[in-house]
Design brief:
The chain is an all-alpha fold. The protein has helices at about 1-20, 30-45, 45-75, 75-85, 90-105, 110-140, 155-170, 180-210, 225-240, 245-285, 295-315, 320-350. It contains twelve helices and no strands. The termini are far apart.
Length: about 375
């Protein structure tokens, strides 16, 4: 009996540690899984789409429960993440995860579920979109946040554009609310666009003023491409709305032109991100092992595929569909590799928290990327 009690106590301790150290950006698993489910829904196979949809929904439930427990039992750790500029933007994955899953449910014919998830996502986004920058601007008396700027800051754009997509995709389901949903979709797309220009400027400033090391060049930098991809998808969803809607008629030409520019710029990022990854892992021998932020690599690949396919159809660009099919299978392969790495880590280190490397204590946290 004592052995069973000890085993139960150890299991409870591991679960508590995993909840305590839950990475703020872990909802990127839901984002990555949901967008690949969306892509396979559009391009096949359908069985894989349904499987990934179930995995995304299960992940959302588990992560929501873990986040709730963390807020209840480990508030100092959550507060430390909120104060850390290199981690706080990870909370935007909550909004994006809810929206990506909601959009997948919408295309499957469940707009009510999409509306519910979208409303929750909007509430989280409103708190974060004003609370996070206010916290960084008003609560730091001496140190600069520039050292904490990294690719995770672009999750602000991803979350904003995910709300734009949700609003646009609900227009056919609730045509009576078109006068509300269409301006929201178009307006949020514009906000996301300007936020992208602002944050990419900060990232480039950091790259040019702070020495680049393997530790600082982490997986979240793939969101440089992922943020453009989801902006392309949001633009394509706006272009698919009826042309007689006033806000769509007023912005259509600008949206189409700038959406193509975003697609081209996102495509330009891919070779550079590969080069930076090779420098990190081959030239500088940084170990390639599982970490929660790897889902921030999978999501951009899946989003690039779906965005390319959707925009190609909206703009009548036939060359985009074969590229979208190829990138979808690249994303599926990346998802499988990261999932396998996660399972292998659980097998090799069953006594360590599955949430990734333990977060520094609130008193010792330093800005890193």
């Amino acid at each position: 009996m004592s052995t069973e009690a000890d085993a139960q106590a150890r299991a409870e301790s591991r679960a508590a540690t995993a909840v305590r150290d839950l990475h703020p950006g872990y909802f990127a698993f839901v984002m990555a899984t949901g967008i690949i489910s969306d892509g396979t829904f559009l391009l096949g196979p359908s069985w894989l789409s349904r499987t990934l949809l179930a995995a995304a929904a299960a992940g959302l439930v588990v992560l929501s429960a873990a986040l709730t427990a963390r807020l209840v039992f480990f508030r100092p750790n959550v507060a430390a993440d909120i104060r850390a500029p290199d981690r706080v933007f990870g909370f935007f994955t909550i909004t994006a995860g809810l929206d990506v899953l909601g959009v997948r449910l919408a295309v499957a014919g469940h707009p009510l579920a999409t509306a519910i998830l979208g409303a929750l996502a909007a509430a989280v986004w409103l708190v974060l979109t004003y609370g996070v920058p206010a916290s960084l601007l008003l609560t730091r008396a001496h140190d600069s946040v520039l050292g904490g700027v990294n690719g995770s800051w672009l999750l602000w754009i991803v979350a904003t554009q995910s709300l734009s997509i949700t609003a646009a995709i609900l227009v056919p389901a609730w045509p009576s609310q078109t006068t509300l949903l269409a301006p929201v979709a178009a307006g949020l797309w514009c906000v996301g666009l300007l936020l992208y220009l602002m944050i990419v400027t900060l990232i480039l400033l950091r790259w040019l003023t702070v020495p680049m090391t393997p530790a600082t060049l982490g997986p979240p930098y793939w969101i440089l491409m992922g943020a453009t991809a989801i902006s392309v998808l949001a633009g394509a969803r706006d272009l698919a709305l009826p042309a007689d809607i006033p806000v769509i008629r007023a912005t259509a030409s600008f949206t189409e032109g700038f959406t193509f520019a975003l697609w081209a710029f996102g495509t330009w990022w891919i070779p550079l991100l590969i080069i930076l990854g090779l420098w990190r892992h081959v030239r500088r021998h940084w170990p390639l092992s599982y970490e929660p932020t790897l889902w921030s690599v999978v999501f951009p690949l899946g989003m690039y595929s779906v965005a390319t396919l959707t925009f190609g159809k909206a703009a009548h660009l036939a060359f985009m569909e074969p590229l979208a099919r190829f990138m979808l299978w690249v994303a599926v392969a990346a998802w499988a590799l990261v999932a396998a790495a996660f399972l292998a880590r659980l097998v090799r280190h069953p006594h360590e928290p599955s949430s990734g490397s333990p977060a520094p204590s609130p008193a010792r946290r330093q800005p890193t990327t």
